[in-house]
Amino acid sequence: MTKHIFVTGGVVSSIGKGLTSASIGMLLEARGLRVRMQKLDPYINVDPGTMSPYQHGEVYVLDDGSETDLDLGHYERFTSGPLTRDSNYTTGQIYLSVIEKERRGEFLGKTVQVIPHITDEIKSVIRKVGERDVDVVITEIGGTVGDIESLPFLEAIRQFPREAGEENCLFIHLTLVPYLKAAAELKTKPTQHSVGQLRQIGIQPDVLICRCEQSISREEREKIALFCNVPVQAVIEEKDKDFSIYEVPLSLVNNGLDELIVKRLGLPSHPADLKHLHEILRRQREPKHEISIAVVGKYAEHKDAYKSIYEALDHAGIHHQASVRLGRIQSSEIEREGPECVLSGYDGILVPGGFGERGIEGKVQAIRFAREKGIPFFGICLGMQCAVIEFGRNVIGLDRAHSSEFDRETPHPVICLLDEQREITRMGGTMRLGKQPAELREGSHAKQAYGVSSIVERHRHRYEFNNVYRQQFEANSMVFSGTSPDGGLVEIIELPNHPWFVAVQFHPEFKSKPTSAHPLFTDFVQAAITRHSRRNSARPATPAPAHNDQNANV
Ligand code: GLN
Fold first, then answer.
1. Does residue 382 line the site of ligand 1, with CB under 6 A?
2. Contact at 8 Å (CB) between 245 and 547?
3. For a pocket test of ligand 1, which of 331, 422, 460, 465 has the largest count of ligand atoms closer than 8 A to its C-beta?
4. CA of 461 to the centre of ligand 1 (A)
């Protein structure tokens, strides 16, 4: 019998539900259990694919091409259970499916209602994830208890134990216990109210995870337990972590959460094996190198817009035992100040993916700077397209070379629409999406980094290198080191006479994990370490806060 854990959030948004859910998944896997993660998002968009990164942060892409919430990135980085289209549903998707059924006449003339039709649909997508070879499904409900949008999801999970059995379900509520400086006190009232709201809906949480700045005393935990009707050992403290996100799962273990879950659900398991976590933290605490990487993007000020890229750089840092300081640089700043002034101090420059014309010229200038000064450069998706534009304009001398995404009249569309995209007008799930194979060229940086000839990476784009220009680029010593197996699509470009200049049409960041950093990221960070030590051989490394985005819209 598959067990189900439901994670809800209360008091405020951005409380760290995604990271906490992923941590719970990690701990249960470390106990030898087979876990599947799922996120249900209350917003009405069918998926986040068409949403602005300002609103929603990064769009995370799975192997099967689904465009999902960035929390799924936490899940994939922390756990190993497969994620698919069924791992992320939105209100929009649930309603769309019910409405399509209604149009097909499947409800036989009945009035279609939130209860039971919408809630039945929600329960069926939860059940579906747990159907095969799974011990525990962890379903995170997006949003905050009290939001109007969340109500159908909460009602569905309220009903769920009636069918799956009370003993097979566990409700975890993540809440905030704020510290009031003026009163020098932790305040439990918001938690009481939030749990009160859940109980009005008919959900009695089994476990409360309390986010807090200050430790919660035994008396305060007893008070929360009494008011919220849970045993005191089920009031789990989750204190803010200043140093690293990898401290979160460890602190949950130290507070007894994994033990409590397996006991309560009657899951046979061994104590969590967390050697890998301790090793990650050891490497972060004792850095042997300290480097800085500039990530030059359109949405640099939004900390979630390039979430997986920041994480992948962090993984590469863990791999090399290096502290990677990130410079989040707005590409428009380079347009204003010039690349020299903004980028001079960095050991590596990364230009990530994106859409829309704003900031493109800043990215092109940053890439020119990296190419001419021999600074390690890594381009990803739009970053690769900008590297092609830069090379076309400044090396080959192609007048106003551009992508036809940004300039339809350009005399040199070095980046143009994929053939299969020409007729598509509908937005949402219509790009070249998900995993695609590529072949690597012998003797290239890419081949050396991967150590294999055939790779599979995730894509999300409409535009592509324009093959009309291939010979001209090659004649000017750009190497096309990765192509689709039929050779028709350029997937990786590089410059052999540069310390490290590699750009890819796909998104390697989605496949990087803390325990197995992506080879292109480790190679790039190695090149940055080499550059740094050449420039600055004698300076000792100091431990800097590793990586702490505990709140990152999770
Ligand atoms: N806008 C570009 C395209 O559609 C790049 C997309 C991306 O960077 N994900 O091809």
1. yes
2. yes
3. 460
4. 4
Task: Considering the candidates 237, 335, 494, 509, report the single residue annotated as catalytic.
Answer: 509
Verify whether residue 459 is a known catalytic residue. Answer: no
Angle between helices 275-285 and 247-254 (to 10 degrees): 130
Q: Residue type at 133?
A: D
The amino acid at residue 425 is T
The rounded distance, in Å, linking the Cα atoms of 502 and 524 is 8
H or E stretch at 265: helix 257-265
Whether 290 contacts 536, CB under 8 Å: no
Residue nearest to atom 5 of ligand 1 (CA): 382
Question: Using a 6 Å cutoff on CB, does residue 509 contact ligand 1?
Answer: no
DSSP state of 278: H
Q: What is the DSSP letter of 510?
A: G
Report helix, strand or coil for 54. Answer: helix
Whole-number Å distance, alpha carbon 515 to ligand 1 midpoint, is 28
Q: What is the pLDDT along the chain (554 residues), one digit of tens a residue?
A: 899 999 999 888 888 899 999 999 999 999 999 999 999 999 998 888 878 877 778 999 999 999 999 999 999 999 999 999 999 999 999 999 999 999 999 999 999 999 999 999 999 999 999 998 999 999 999 999 989 999 999 999 999 999 999 999 999 999 999 999 888 889 999 999 999 999 999 999 999 999 999 999 999 999 999 999 999 999 999 998 888 999 999 999 999 999 999 999 999 889 999 999 999 999 999 999 999 999 999 887 778 889 999 999 999 999 999 999 999 999 999 999 999 999 999 999 999 999 888 899 999 999 999 999 999 999 999 999 999 999 999 999 999 999 999 999 999 999 998 777 777 767 777 889 999 999 999 999 999 999 999 999 999 999 999 999 999 999 999 999 999 999 999 999 999 999 999 999 999 999 999 999 999 999 999 999 999 998 877 455 444 445 444 443 33
Q: Are the C-beta atoms of 322 and 532 separated by less than 8 Å?
A: no
Which of 302, 4, 383 lies closest to 168, judged by CA?
A: 4
Cα of 355 to ligand 1 centre, how many Å? 6
Residues 6+ apart with CB under 8 A from 109: none
Q: Which residue has the tokens 């809906």?
A: 201
Residue 509 annotated in active site: yes
